[in-house]
Amino acid sequence: MQYPDYKSLKLDWPAEHVLRITMSRGKVNAMDYDLHHDIAQIWRLIDRDPDVNCAIVTGEGTYFSAGGDFAVDGRIAGDFDFMIEMMKDAREIVENMMTCSKPIISAINGPAAGGGLAVALMADISIGAKSAKLVDAHTRLGVAAGDHAALIWPLMCGMAKSKLYLFTCDPLSAEEAERIGLLSMCVDDDKLMETAVALAARLAMGAPTGIRWTKNVMNQWYRQAWPIFEASVAYENLGFFGPDLPEGMQSHVEKREPKFNPRSPL
Q1: Measured distance CA(129)–CA(127) in Å, rounded
Q2: Per-residue confidence in pLDDT tens, the chain, 266 aa
Q3: What DSSP character marks residue 206?
Q4: What global pTM score does this model have?
Q5: Rounded CA gap, 125 and 143, in Å?
Q6: Own/partner pairs for 185-192, CB < 8 Å, 24+ apart?
Q7: Could you give the CA distance from residue 219 to residue 161 in angstroms, rounded to a whole number?
Q8: Which residues does 167 contact at the CB level (< 8 Å), separation at least 6?
Q9: Smallest Cα–Cα separation from 53: which of 96, 3, 104, 93?
Q10: C-beta of residue 11 within 8 angstroms of C-beta of residue 19
Q11: Rounded alpha-carbon distances, angstroms, from residue 264 to 63, 116, 234, 244
């Protein structure tokens, strides 16, 4: 398989039939259009690559991915066509990771948020370093939690915990995320990649029909809840044209609490 010359993705082979994808963009691996698009589409190529039996996705440096780039988010609010492109890629991050037949392991080496968190948690097996933090900050910015959470969090950790963290945007440590079922496992920082590669190598040598068809069957839980995901994506993007997003983004930049209108007609 010939992969494109990606601007913000680095590919290597840490074990036989194991492809590692490393997100690499700036200090925090924030998602501009190219990274957001490429991390959505690469899973289709991996699905068709006969040399890949398992994939690992991680981040370069001390971040997994901080999620959306604020310059990109600001453009969405004023450019309908660009919003549609970003919305399609947000949907396809979830859809393509779900339908990729090969097992995917996320090695969460640092903070993961927004679209980066979607990549981390849509992996079939998620491994977090103890120093990693997870946060879904959509509602803090003034939009609905649309990247992935409404679809998968209730199945992973239950409705009560999902609403608590999605309403408050409180960060979770990797250890707490493992405890409530949001992560598959949590390991010491210096053991993260070693653990991910060893597990990927093990899965890569497993029976393809057994592993891939089991993934397909288990992901039917996601498929039957797909209308929930579509609604969350629609509400998220509608929020980009509403009154709360500018205040949410500005307060984040100024590192202060947002001052939303408490008498919203919603």
Answers
A1: 7
A2: 899 999 999 999 999 999 999 999 999 999 999 999 999 999 999 999 999 999 999 999 999 999 887 777 778 777 889 989 999 999 999 999 999 999 999 999 999 999 999 999 999 999 999 999 999 999 999 999 999 999 999 999 999 999 999 999 999 999 999 999 999 999 999 999 999 999 999 999 999 999 999 999 999 999 999 999 999 999 999 998 899 999 998 998 899 999 999 998 88
A3: S
A4: 0.95
A5: 28
A6: 185/125, 185/126, 185/127, 185/128, 186/127, 186/128, 186/129, 186/130, 187/127, 187/128, 187/129, 187/130, 188/129, 188/130, 189/109, 189/129, 189/130, 189/131, 192/107, 192/108, 192/109, 192/127, 192/128, 192/129
A7: 21
A8: 139
A9: 104
A10: yes
A11: 36, 30, 19, 10
Residue whose structure tokens are 């969090």: 153
Q: Is 258 exposed, middle or buried (0-12, 13-18, 19+ CB in 10 A)?
A: middle
